[in-house]
Amino acid sequence: MARNVVYPLYQLGGPQLRVFRTNFFIQLVRPGVAQPEDTVQFRIPMEMTRVDLRNYLESIYNVPVAAVRTRVQYGSNKRRDHRNVRIKKPDYKVAYVQLVRVSWPAPAGPPRGSLQLCPWGCLCQRRCAGAQGAPMRPDLRAAVQRQAPHKVALRHGLGVSVVALGARERWGAWGTSQRPAIL
């Protein structure tokens, strides 16, 4: 059941009533346990019912819904404050929405020859400097030959990208003083 909304009284000559969005907030969350492909998990307010959620998804987002299942998740009660008193997190409702199966057309692959894998493992629209046999800068060639490509950055046609970061996929893995130079 939605919360009660108080509309202003209409007076002749006054502005027309506005249409307000619902005051429910739902969160799409990643399930902790693997779910079927057609099932989506939401965190919803405790006051929201299955029918409310179905109408919300179908009316606002035009998402066809096959079934809705809900459960109430008990909030954690393990944490304690400085007086050793338990601090309970609030309960919340979890909804499992089964979507109507839609057969999507097979995605068309990229045209042949448009995207290609270069020797450093990145997808480029244009070939990298070393991939087409053009002479590479000596310091880049030495770094690639030493098999330390995570310390080298190359400029591609798509912008600057770090080459084959390996285990350190993000800039944050290096400290701010140890970031690889962008060439």
UniProtKB/TrEMBL annotation:
Record-annotated membrane-spanning stretches: none
Species of provenance: Macaca mulatta
Protein name per its UniProtKB record: Large ribosomal subunit protein uL23m
Short name of one Pfam family: Ribosomal_L23
Encoding gene (name): MRPL23
Gene Ontology BP, a term: translation
Subcellular location as annotated: Mitochondrion
Domain of life: Eukaryota
Keyword Mitochondrion recorded: yes
Family annotation (InterPro entries): Nucleotide-bd_a/b_plait_sf (IPR012677), Ribosomal_uL23-like (IPR013025), Ribosomal_uL23/eL15/eS24_sf (IPR012678)
UniProt entry keywords in alphabetical sequence: Mitochondrion, Ribonucleoprotein, Ribosomal protein
Entries under SUPFAM superfamilies matching the protein: Ribosomal proteins S24e, L23 and L15e (SSF54189)
